[in-house]
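dumping this here so i dont lose it again. seq + smiles for NAP
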Amino acid sequence: MSDASLAAPPVKASPFHNLEVLWVRHWTDQLFSFALKRPEDFRFRSGEFVMIGLPGEDGGKPVLRAYSIASPFWAEELEFFSIKVADGPLTSRLQKIQPGDSVLMGKKPTGTLVLDAVTGGERLWLIGTGTGLAPWLSVARDPETYSRFKQVIVCHTVRNVADLAYRDFFTHEIHDDPLIGDEAKAQLTYYPTVTRERFETPGRITDRIKSGDVFADLQLPIGFSPNSDRVMLCGAMAMIKETGELLETYGLKEGSNAEPGDYVLERAFVG
Ligand SMILES: Cc1cc2nc3c(=O)[nH]c(=O)nc-3n(C[C@H](O)[C@H](O)[C@H](O)COP(=O)(O)OP(=O)(O)OC[C@H]3O[C@@H](n4cnc5c(N)ncnc54)[C@H](O)[C@@H]3O)c2cc1C
Ligand SMILES: NC(=O)c1ccc[n+]([C@@H]2O[C@H](COP(=O)([O-])OP(=O)(O)OC[C@H]3O[C@@H](n4cnc5c(N)ncnc54)[C@H](OP(=O)(O)O)[C@@H]3O)[C@@H](O)[C@H]2O)c1
């Protein structure tokens, strides 16, 4: 028998980390957040997404879905903001995780909602619907965001007031962040809108852009300018499509990692 036939077959590295759940927070019966222990060798850029999952039931294939990382690149833990779909193959089970459980995470983060994909400007608009807020939790905690842009505006549109997860975070807690608290206080504006309940800034963000209300509320010149405005979009596909088309009418051009531009988008879910 040759040496080669005695050698153990090469061990194929798993494409997933198996990570401990550190905490879970339920916002509503539709939304929750959780954090996973960060592997020491895991690097990502603020705004990227990664595959998250659970082992298949009865030894079947793992169930994996794309998730924006809600933590900034420097964070010790990896936070995620998730929908609960009652009959969703992943989230019907994922919503039941507890601290100490394990969750699978892919090793290759990727995505276009990153500072590298937008060119310089004065104002960065981070526009999200529903869980499309997740990447802004990351980008808004990255110091580079504040050195690149004088003003950062986080727009979050949801159905009900209770769906405004992270409202306290954007209005108060972020100001105490030891790394970017002072910058956030001076440069970050949070602009929530609610579509199916009474609220001080009611309606879809797209409608408030078209009516000019958002610009009036924020005391900004009406409309977007390719000279000063840069935009990131995440959430419902219809919102992304509509806003992207609107931005093009103002002369903004879509960017990518290969060719940075005035606005970038990611479809956080199909719908
Ligand atoms: C690039 C990318 C990033 C994503 N980031 C996130 C994230 O940070 N947080 C998150 O919760 N989801 C995110 N998603 C969606 C996620 O991948 C899954 O679809 C979601 O976790 C539901 O999985 P599921 O298997 O339970 O149901 P699925 O079979 O995947 O979805 C069932 C249906 O539920 C609806 N749905 C799915 N996800 C959402 C959602 N997030 N909001 C509203 N409706 C939804 C859609 O109508 C979909 O057809 C992202 C998707 C992509 C492509
Ligand atoms: N309270 C609830 O019952 C509740 C709450 C949250 C989620 N859910 C469930 O979870 C699923 C996902 O819901 P979701 O609320 O996260 O996502 P969603 O249905 O995409 O809605 C999120 C927000 O995006 C807005 N929106 C949708 N299309 C838009 C567009 N073209 N332009 C601008 N804004 C747009 C919605 O406004 P509109 O309201 O005008 O559509 C809503 O305020 C749904 O299937 C639902 O069953 C239910």
